Amino acid sequence: MLKRHGYAQVEGFGAVYADPKATRAALDANGLAMPTGHFSIDLLENEPQKVLDIAGTLGMKAIFCPHLAPDLRPADREGWLAFGERLERAHATYSRAGYVFGWHNHDFEFKALADGSLPQDAIFAAAPSIAWEADIAWIIRAGADPVQWIENHSDRIVAVHVKDIARPGENANEDGWADVGHGTVDWKGLMGTLRETPAQYFIMEHDNPSDDERFARRSIATVKSY
């Protein structure tokens, strides 16, 4: 279905790593590549060879740490600096193996701590080498300015999650998300800004689509029109 709608690449995550060889065979059979993938901080730190084996089998170029569970999130800037140092150490491991390594954000990194600082600033300060997979819609949901963040950290941006936010009161059954180009995010303007960065991968995303094919079809059509 993805190939039929014009996709050439997909991004990997945990559920498709159970049998990497079978996943690779399915990708190859449909003319798709998987240049990027998400791996948990636990796996990245504790089973690096497993990560490398999966990434190698699937032909990845970039590895991203995608999330930090609520019960693991630091409560202060010092804690977030320490987390950034962990990402910097992971970068050393995976960059030595030839991969781009970076962080993928949600909204919690842009919510002020008690001292007024932001977790995302602390992460970047403590991890000067890591790349960034910028999830624009989460930045907006956090109340931050995506253009400012893109411009301030443009040199880090290797990948972008292209996701849209439904109008207030709409798409409650889809957790308030929308197909790209059918919500409130100014993707036409943002794509112009993002084209000034090193971003190579633009990943259409919807956290809870009620119709996978509708989302895939409409989203890629939107982005191709820009």
TrEMBL record:
Keywords: Isomerase. It holds the Pfam family AP_endonuc_2. It comes from the Bacteria. One of its GO terms (molecular function) is isomerase activity. Residues 2-224 form the Xylose isomerase-like TIM barrel domain. InterPro entries: IolE/XylAMocC-like, Xyl_isomerase-like_sf, Xyl_isomerase-like_TIM-brl. This is Sugar phosphate isomerase/epimerase. It comes from Phyllobacterium pellucidum.
